[in-house]
Amino acid sequence: MNCSHIRFCVHDTALPDDRQPQIDLYQIQSLFQVGAFWARDRQIEDWAIAIANSNPIITVWDGSRLIGFARATSDCIYRATIWDVVIHPDYQGCGLGRKLVETLVSHPRLNRVERIYLMTTRQQRFYERIGFEENTSTTMVLYNNELLVTQEIDRQLPLVASIESE
């Protein structure tokens, strides 16, 4: 497939709104429903929050059709994390995924970062070819289940009573 006409857009939330390319949340949701098993059930409202708190965001376009997406969060010097990298299945194998990740990590918010992390379930070899290394020493996760956290705090803390003064 000839991918020379494909366009990459950089979305940088540090820019004023009038200089920002628009992000169509419905196209993002559709792209992830077809191209990302881990994000098929995400809601539009949740996408809006994730995007608002990510910088930079890279989108990939074939005309007016969104065919790729990736985003990052970072402190811009020590750590960054890449999230939600996807290329539409019809466009995979053209080098677009590699260019997407390389565009993201070359962004000024990431290009000086000491360590860039990402999580992947099935694409380790793809990311290794770009230069990422397996890192088993730092992988930990907290599943933020509010009910369990509240129960644990209640179990560990003594009951505190307050007395209202009249």
Give the topology, please.
Blueprint: E1 7-11, H1 25-35, H2 44-52, E2 57-62, E3 65-74, E4 79-87, H3 96-105, E5 115-118, H4 124-130, H5 146-156
Parallel strand pairs: 4-5
Antiparallel strand pairs: 1-2, 2-3, 3-4
Q: Nearest-angstrom radius of gyration?
A: 20 Å
Describe the sheet with the most strands: 5 strands, mixed
| SSE string | EHHEEEHEHH
Coarse shape: globular
- Helical percentage: 25-40%
The strand line-up of the biggest sheet is: 1-2-3-4-5
Mean of all residue-level pLDDT scores: 83
Low-confidence stretches: 161-166
> Class by helix and strand content?
alpha+beta
Percent strand: 15-25%
Spatial separation of the terminal alpha carbons: 78 Å
Tally the beta strands: 5
How many DSSP helices? 5
Account of the 3D structure:
The chain is of the alpha+beta class. It is built from 5 helices and 5 strands; from the N terminus they run E-H-H-E-E-E-H-E-H-H. The protein has helices at residues 25-35, 44-52, 96-105, 124-130, 146-156, and strands at 7-11, 57-62, 65-74, 79-87, 115-118. The chain has a 5-stranded mixed beta sheet with strand order 1-2-3-4-5, with helices on both faces. A hairpin with a 2-residue loop joins strand 2 (57-62) and strand 3 (65-74). The N and C termini lie far apart (78 Å). The model is unreliable at 161-166 (pLDDT under 50).
